[in-house]
Design goal:
The protein is an all-alpha fold. 76% of the residues lie in helices and 0% in strands. Helix 6 runs antiparallel to helix 8. The longest helix is centred in the N-terminal third of the chain and has 54 residues. It is flat, with a radius of gyration of 32 Å. 22% of the residues are buried.
Length: 286
Amino acid sequence: MYAMDRLSQLFGDIASLWSKSASTYFAGMGNTLLLAVIGTLLGCVIGFVCGILQTIPVAKNDRAVKKGLLGILRAIIRVYIEVFRGTPMMLQAVFIYFGLPYFTNNAMRFRNLWVVSILVVSINTGAYMAESVRGGILSVDRGQAEGAKAIGMNHFQTMTSVILPQALRNIMPQIGNNFIINVKDTSVMFIIGFTEFFSVHKAITGATYKYFPSAAIEMLGYLTVTLTASLLLRAMEKRMDGKGSYELVKGDPLISTAGTYNYPDKGSPYDEQNREHACETEEERR
C-alpha cells in the first residue's frame, strides 16, 4: 500500500510540475536540441577535415615541403584528438570559459554563452569524428581509388566522388551515435550558466524542492528525443542503402547484334507454327 501511495503521489507531483512549468521544460529542451544539432554538424565538418588530412597519401618522390607540412598538421591533429577525447566535456567548458580569461588577464573572454557552448560541443565532437572519418576512409577498398585513378581522376576527384560517399555511409551510425551523445552531454553546460534542459530541472527543483518528480520528467524528455533520433537515423540509413533486392538481367540485348540466334526447342508452339508455315509455302510452290 505504501508503494502504491508513493506512486500515486509521484504522478500527482509530475502532473503539477508539468502544468506549471511545461513551457520552461520545452524551452530548455529546445536549447538542448539546437545546441546538439549545431555542435554535431560543426563537429562533423571538423572531423572530416582532420580525417582527410590524416589519410592524404605521401609518396617517396613527393616534395619535402609537402611531407613536412603534412607531418606538422598530423602531429597537431593527433594532439588535438588525444586531448579532447581524453578529458571530460565539462572540464573543457570550464577551461575555455574560465581558463582563457585567467591566462590572458581577461583579454579573451566569451560574452555569449551560446558561442562558447557551441565551440565546446563542436571541438569535442570533432575529435571523435576525426577518428571515425579516418577509419571510414580506410575501410573503402583500395581498388576503388585505383580504379578512379585508372580513368584519369586526381586525388581530389577520387575523394569527393568515390571514397567519401562510401565512407559517409560507413560512418553514418557513428554520426547518429555522436548526436545522441551530444543531446545528453549538453547537460554539462549548466556549469558555465548555459540554460538547457538539465539546468531547467535544477532551477525548478530549487524553487519547488520536488527533485525526483522533476528528474522523472527529465528522463522521459531525454528518452523521447533519443528514441526519435534513433528511428530517424535508421530510416536515413535504409534510404542510403537503397533497395534490398535487384532483378538480374535475364537476356543479353546485344545478342542480336552479335550475329547469334537462339532456335526454339523442338515441340514448342513456336516450332509447330514454323513447320506449318513451311508446308504452306511448299504447297504454293507446287
